[in-house]
Each structure stands twice: as structure tokens, then as C-alpha cells.
């Protein structure tokens, strides 16, 4: 999520609809989805096209799939029947019995009890609510009637399993939470009425919470999402945490951007939509005590701050995942590499506006001047909600024309769109391949800087091209040199001027005898950090790759295909940047969009991981590795020496604060 980048994204065809949440099969590491109620899809991470994934058409509509870590996936049909996925795949068209007749399923959950999967779901018919308990592997089914509540009905359900009893929590429209114990061991076949008891009244200090969703945190705490209404005040949506043992409000937080009314909880993290973003909030349940409950209540009413929850994620950095309307499945994961800026996470949007699609269809065979004129008018007229979709469609139309007509390439128009609009790779997936084919390096630089979701395959393709293209070709191409012009001096003949480098803690003469292998004199030319091993144009292109975000898991397989000589050249440049950074006390290169020390180190490690065997075998690479090892070792030794005098430096800093700033003096301090 912090990477702002989908590690895997699969979309159904236009017109198809995902009709239940996608789940993961923990045993096979596969994803399971249902679209159009009856079509089952199963695929793995490496599968790219969802349309080519495993497909099974079922004989009845699916309500939801539940996946248990030790019990496997369970398929709950709208008719109330439950099947394990293995049994269902043996005969996808098997007859599904009708369990609930005319009742509608309102909620469902799955648990493991005595190593047996249990599915519990609640249904509603004509204002009456029923609860079903099924054990599919034991062919066991029990039906209960929920005790009615006068002038009130359940709005939301949640449940937990403890001591062979499922406790169902019901959020009612009378602003109260009731608990209903459901026994899993039942001897009689007769329908029983489940009694309920009041667990929590959602009111405090005259304010009433109109809840929409709740989750259980532990035996004494629940979280409720809803609208807090106070007398003579506008209702405000907020997330609240309640102590059910002492009937107190533990803490709360306003959500001014609004929510979808849904709240999820997993591994001590809340997940909720706040405005158009997915927000993740960490929490930690404390031991329930009366003093703590009263204290938290006081804090929540006065300061609004509580150690119970880390509310910081609701401030400026909450844009974790931006949403756009789309029928697709997107998975996000953490990456230790080059985190993506949290300003944009746009998913691919297919144009739904009929007029836009019809216009593009009509312009398919139009002359070039007419095409560009109409597309510019379309962009200027696009409404804000559909603006990105319309622009993505415009770029797609232009790249399609480029592919059908090799002589056509509207470079200035494409540059204008990319530089002035907030686009993403998934909105125009053909743009970068076309630019790569045309060797439009400037446009590729802009895309690498601006697009938040470039696939690792495309990042590698750019890197490979930037390393393999000839210097003669680069000299006649337009390249943005802003990222290198401040630390690579260029003369009028476009050749680099060598500058003296003073390396932190490194002295070649003193350290020469400490290196195990002898370095030939020729290695002191272009690979020793005194001069850049590539031209400024190539360096600028490589810098744009260093800035692009990536996932190590997905980039490493592509990086292993990089030819050995290109890998060595890239490592030489990274080593040059590393030495350049080490000149500065703050290890920061000057200039605009210059690589950071972390980006340089991450790419060096990644490159060595991908080509370690080659680096060890080739003589020129072995010499470079030896110099790199010597330089790093010298820096480690230098910082180690600094650590030894850290205490003395702190004492010196303290004395400076104590000294009268008005008095001039010269002092000699002896460091022992």
C-alpha cells in the first residue's frame, strides 16, 4: 500500500461484473473470483490475463466465498447451500439445493471449530430474521429464528467463535448492539428462537451514534462506524471504539470526507474508505479496566487523542490507495525498495461515456489533422469526473494510430498531454512502448517521472534501451539533462571534464595495502570514480530509471536478462554516483531530480543480486567489485572512528551552549 502500486491487477471484460469479494486460497496460493453470479475464476500471481484463467460455470448463483487458512475455500450460494471448493470443482454443474426458500442472505461468516469448517449466515424475509449454521463436511444444517425487536431491525452483523459457541453481534436501528449466542452442538431438529441480550447502547453525553457497520476487536471492545448526532448540531461521520464491559466510549475520530459505511478489521488494523481513498489505521487493545475506560472517555471528549489508536494515518499522509470506478481486482503489498510518492494511485478506467466512445470510433479513420483537432476539443470539454478516463482514451486513440501508421507520431501533442495531465501507465498502456519504439527518450523520461504504476517489465525495457543505445544516437536525441548538469561538468564538445573527488574517509595510498587483490593501473581511469563512465545524456536517462518505483520481486527476474556488459556499465555508473554522494556531508547530489543515496544503494544491491556470478567471473567486473569493496570498507572504518568521538563531540556542543555568546575567546579543548 505504501508503494502506491499494484503488484498484480486483473480485469474482467467490459460488461462483466465481479459479484462477490475475491478471496485467496491459502493452501494453493490462488485467487478465486466470481463474476456474473455464476462464473468462477481461479488464477495465480503469474497469470496475466484473467480471461485465460481457469473458468467454471456453476448451476446456481453464488452469494460469497469464504476462505479459511486451514479449512480451504467454502462457497455459499444464494439459495443457502454450502460446498467446499474441491467438491464443487469435481462437478461444477451439480445440483444445488434450495435451503433458504424466499429468504435473502444479509450476512455470512466462516469459522474453524474442532478442525471442521463452519458457515454461519443470517437471512431476512418479511421483517423476520433467521440464522443458519452449516458444517458442509459433516452434512449438518441447523436453522434458528432471531428473537424480534419491537420497532427495530438489525442493520449490521459480525460474529466471533469461542468455546464452541458463535456469538453473533447485531447492530440495530435503535442505536444499540445486541449479542446472540449460537450453540454449534444441537441435538434437536426443531427450529429454535435465539434470545438476545443488550450489549451496548451507542449514546454518550447526549450524542447518539447512528451506526452502519461494526467489528469485534477483543472480548471487551468493539469498533462502530457511523454518524454521531448531537443536539442542535450537524451529524458527523466518525469511527468509534467502545468498551462493552463498562459501556463507555473509548475513543473516536471524525471522518470529514465521508465513508462508504463499511469497516474491516484484520491483524490489528482498521480498513475503511475515507472519501476516495482506502485508509489503514493501526490500533492496540489495552487491558480493560474501569480507570482506563473512564480515562479514555475523558480524553476522547477533550483532546480527541488516545493511545488506543494511531490516528495519524488520517492526517496528510492518508492517501494510501486512490479509487476509480472499475471492475477489477488489484492487490497491493509492501516493498522495501524506492517507495512511491503518495500523490497518485490511479487505476485503469475504461471510458463509460457513450459520447466519448462513439466519437473515438467515428475518428478511427479520420485524417490526422481532423483527429488531433477533435481530440483536443474532447479534452477541453471533458467533465471533471470523467477527465482522466477521457484523456486516457485520447492517448490510446493516438497510440493506436501510431501502430497502424508507422510514419505518424504526434510527439508534441503527446508531450503536451503527459506534461500537463495527471496520467498513469494503466490509463495509456501503449504510450511507453510506442515511445520506446520511436526512441523518444525525452517522453520516456517524463513518463518515468510522472507515472505511478509502471510495470517492472517496462522499467527493464527502458533500462535495457538506455544502456544499449549508441552515443551517436543519444547526441542527436532530445534528453532532459537537469538531473546531471549540476554534478557532471560538460564542455562545448560535449565531453565530461574530470573533477577532483575527495572521498569521505578514503585515501587510496593508505588503503592500497589493505586490499587483498592488486588493482592494475588502468583501472584508475574511467572506473575509479574520477570521471563518469557514461555520457551526460545516458546518465540522465539512467537517473530517470533510478527514480521509478519498483518491486524487487517482480523486477529481479527481468534484470537477470540484462547482458553482462550492460550490467557492468550500469554498475560502474552506480559506483560513480555512490562516490559522488560520498563527497558531500549530507550524501546528497546537487541538481533537480538527482538520485538519492538510498536509490543508488538499492539498485546496486539489486544489480549484484541479479548478476553476482557474472560479476565474479569477468575480470573487469571483478576489479570493479574490489574497488567498490575497498571504498565501502573505508567508509565503514571512517564512520566507526566518528562513533568513537561522538561523546566528546556532544560535550563540546554542550559547552558551546553554556558559553556566553557576547564574549570573544579562543579555547583549546583536549580530547582524551
Provide the fold topology:
Elements: E1 6-11, E2 23-25, E3 30-35, E4 39-43, E5 54-57, E6 62-68, E7 72-77, E8 82-84, H1 85-90, E9 104-113, E10 116-125, E11 128-135, E12 140-146, E13 154-162, E14 165-172, E15 176-183, E16 192-194, E17 197-201, E18 203-204, E19 207-218, E20 221-229, E21 236-243, E22 248-254, E23 263-265, E24 269-274, E25 277-282, H2 290-302, E26 321-322, E27 328-332, H3 354-362, H4 368-381, H5 387-404, H6 411-420, H7 431-437, H8 441-450, H9 456-468, H10 471-475, H11 508-511, H12 536-547, H13 552-559, H14 564-583, H15 597-610, H16 612-617, H17 619-644, H18 646-658
Mean pLDDT: 77
Structural class: alpha+beta
Number of strands: 27
Portion of residues in beta strands equals 25-35%
Rg calc: 32 Å
Tell me what you see in this structure:
- This protein is α+β, with helices and mostly antiparallel strands.
- The protein has a domain at about 360-440.
- The strands form seven sheets. It has a five-stranded mixed sheet with strand order 9-10-11-12-16, with no helix packed on it.
- A hairpin with a 2-residue loop joins strand 24 and strand 25 (about 275-280).
- Helix 13 (about 550-560) packs across helix 15.
- It starts with 5 loop residues before the first strand and ends in a 14-residue tail after the last helix.
